[in-house]
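Weekly puzzle thread! Below is a chain. First person to post its structure in token form gets bragging rights.
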Amino acid sequence: MNILFVMYDQLRFDYLSCAGHPHLATPNFDRLAAMGVRFTQAYVQSPVCGPSRMSFYTGRYSSSHGAQWNGFPLRVGEVTLGDHLRKLGMDAWLIGKTHMKVDAEGMARLGLAPDSVIGARQAECGFDAWIRDDGLWGEGPDGFYDQKRSPYNEYLKSKGYDGDNPWA
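Winning reply:
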């Protein structure tokens, strides 16, 4: 079984043709919506995207998990959707951004390095990051950084953008 959850950032409820927009054509998202479930009565838990995402990942209100802004640390030990899926034997991958960061104080109390595998997973809310929001490919199942390169990074380099991270 596969679960694909698409979480948009700053998209109006009707900006998909499957949601009734009269002029926008979104055939790929329409096809996904036709094969799956659309949450048409769902609302975000916060007007700021990071706390809203953290609410989805943890299943808790912003007032409960404490995130009020982007880059708020997810507390060490906070159980997330990714953690629950992993316990069921599923792979839990993230493509994109979380706007979370490592709880450095909590990690230090436990003697864990924020740049460790545990620290990286904490910053990605319990998911393994496949493609990060900065366009770099993240940690893979066989090592810290995959040897693969993002096709979009290679495209940017071919257009004259330099460096290992042409997004920066």
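Puzzle host: Confirmed. Bonus trivia for everyone else. The helical segments are 27-35, 49-58, 62-65, 81-87, 104-110, 117-123, 151-158.
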